[in-house]
Design a protein that fits this description.
Oligomer: single chain
Radius of gyration: 32 Å
Largest sheet: none
Distance between the termini: 98 Å
């Protein structure tokens, strides 16, 4: 284990096998590798470990990914799992909202995406969180809820009748006066000096 923490590149190739063999028991170890895996080597190693966590497909795995949503190397993997397993995503994201304020912004955005994209599974999964988590979940969804659209009479005039949709006015013609050209002889005068 100490060797893996020093150099996660050695376990990178077997992360998926580790997740398949150990299942839920491997989530915490893989999450630690995600947290320390990208140091100085790019984010692709963290993404590989995140994919291994997602392959477990358990509530513990969903929570581990939800806690790391602010990490760009994990976000895409986590959102992919969350869209396929809304039943795991909603309780995990609700727990993050209730317990980890630093990740609440990313979790809130993910919840709104899930609520809009998958309304039926989202509603079914919303019954699972604990009461304090449900309260945090409701506050995020209520704050981001779209109100009723304004009636046309409530809109400013520029929005009711946009200038680019108005009938074009005819251009005003400027009258011209026909004048005769006065012939002026051409000459050049030099100043002395």
């Amino acid at each position: 284990a100490k060797r893996l923490q020093k150099d996660p590149w050695e376990v990178r190739g077997i992360a998926g096998e580790l997740a398949a063999a150990a299942g839920d028991a491997a989530v915490d170890a893989l999450a630690k590798l995600v947290d320390g895996g990208g140091a100085g080597r790019g984010t692709d190693i963290s993404t590989d470990f995140a994919k291994a966590i997602a392959s477990v497909g358990s509530p513990r795995a969903a929570l581990a990914l939800a806690l790391r949503l602010e990490d760009k190397s994990v976000r895409a993997v986590a959102l992919e799992l969350f869209t396929t397993r809304v039943d795991l995503a909603v309780p995990a994201l609700a727990r993050v909202l209730a317990t980890k304020p630093s990740a609440a912004d990313a979790a809130g955005r993910a919840l709104v995406q899930l609520a809009n994209a998958h309304p039926a599974p989202f509603a079914a999964a919303r019954a699972k969180p604990a009461p304090n988590e449900e309260k945090a979940l409701a506050s995020v969804l209520d704050a981001l809820a779209v109100g009723a659209e304004a009636d046309a009479s409530e809109l400013p005039s520029v929005l009711r009748d946009p200038p680019w949709l108005r009938a074009k006015k005819k251009a005003v013609t400027i009258p011209t006066i026909a004048l005769d050209v006065v012939p002026i002889p051409e000459k050049v005068e030099w100043l002395e000096g």
